Amino acid sequence: MTQSLITRRVTQRVMVGNVAIGGDAPVVVQSMTNTDTEDAAGTARQVFELARAGSEIVRITVNTAEAAAQVPHIRKILDQMGCDVPLVGDFHYNGHRLLTDFPECAQILAGYRINPGNVGRNRKGEDQFAMMINAACQYQKPVRIGVNWGSLESDLIVRMMDENARLPEPKDAAEVMHEALIVSALTSAQRAEKLGLPHDRIVLSCKVSEVQSLIAVYRALAKRCDYPLHLGLTEAGMGSKGIVASTAALAVLLQEGIGDTIRISLTPEPGGDRTQEVVVAQEILQTMGLRSFTPMVIACPGCGRTTSTVFQELAQSIQSYLRAQMPVWREKYPGVEEMTVAVMGCVVNGPGESKMANIGISLPGNNENPAAPVYVDGEKVVTLRGDNIAGEFMRIVNNYVTRKYASGDTVNHGSEPVSV
Questions:
Q1: What does this protein do (predicted)?
Q2: For an engineered disulfide with 333, which of 36, 155, 277, 405 has Cβ 3.0 to 4.6 Å away?
Q3: Is 105 assigned a ligand-binding role in the annotation?
Q4: What does the pLDDT read at residue 86?
Q5: Coarse DSSP helix, strand, coil percentages of the chain, rounded to the nearest 5 percent
């Protein structure tokens, strides 16, 4: 992977279970279940799937007494499955009671997410916030203070809007809203510290659903604190809209060194795979050169020279295969996540791109010689022909992975034949 030119913002380091956020740690990928937490088996299964896909922290809803009672069982099931991913509890409205009434839940969770807008108003809200922070102090847990513009404290926004209206030159309402989000996060963090929560156990987030607003808020927030920041476009949407919007917002901030952990809040399509949000988060970080998670497949878009769908089908099957192998390869073949595989459709860019990848194949375009040269570490090693090019190329990829990454040594193929 090309070395990143991004200079990360300097922050405190916060430990969530065995995962570091901020400091010199890489940007962490996290996700959230959409199961009913009262269903311990179903929730544990989805947590396992998210973790297997690469989610390094998984958040679960803790909204009822029954859900809080199931958290220890969820953790036990995960431990039995050999899954040590940290679980963060998402609390709204009644978190103070749940953390007090279910001490085992409070102890088992690796961290808590608290929304200042949903802990109660005035003195009652202050007391309930204090109860949650006291639980975090007692059990030595980190807290993400997660402000969301859909649930911002009403008294705060009313007060700030009134103050703005009295100014000789009032600010735009959007600017006031942005500032209210930041004030909510920072004052809540300061209050938490006064209650005894250490500075290095606080993560902040200020989520909105508009790209430009998210960028503006986080730029301002990053200048005013050294807490690690959790990035995410809330209610990003479904399908390509959610992916594009999240990428547009997060890429700008990450390029500026802002952001220590990310979540892509996609609305799953009916029957859709929840792990898609993990894949998108990883692909944002990897394509920006911030981290490597899985071998990258480089494939041409196709044109009038490539009316055959062979290269498209091969690229798709290779990409799916590589991602499916990563849970095993990640442990067995360190470094394999930085491998690149090129699947090209004709001679225009095919040989050149193939030579620059670790492994590349240049399939024939229209009216080209029906042969597919394969390049390994920049050198042509074999030419494939016939009806089983895809299967033979897949075997070459497997052979390369086992030879190069099992010992971490670089393979120098030269002109030696490659076993297929």
A1: Converts 2C-methyl-D-erythritol 2,4-cyclodiphosphate (ME-2,4cPP) into 1-hydroxy-2-methyl-2-(E)-butenyl 4-diphosphate.
A2: 405
A3: no
A4: 98
A5: 45, 15, 35
**Type of residue numbered 418:** V
Alpha-carbon distance of 316 to 370, in angstroms, equals 21
**CA angle in degrees (0–180, nearest 5) for 235-236-241:** 145
Q: Residue 226 above 90 pLDDT?
A: yes
| Contact residues for 409 (Cβ-Cβ < 8 A; gap 6+) | none
Which pTM does this prediction carry? 0.92
Establish whether 303 is an annotated binding residue.
yes
Structure tokens at 165: 């209206």
261-262 and 28-32 strand pairing: parallel
353 marked among binding-site residues: yes
Beta-bridge partners for 144: 113, 203
Scan for tokens 């009313």, then name that residue: 158
83 annotated ligand-binding residue:
no
Partners of 238 in the beta sheet?
A: 267
First to last CA, the chain: 27
Alpha helices in 293-377 (DSSP H): 310-332, 350-356
Residue 411 has pLDDT above 60, yes or no: no
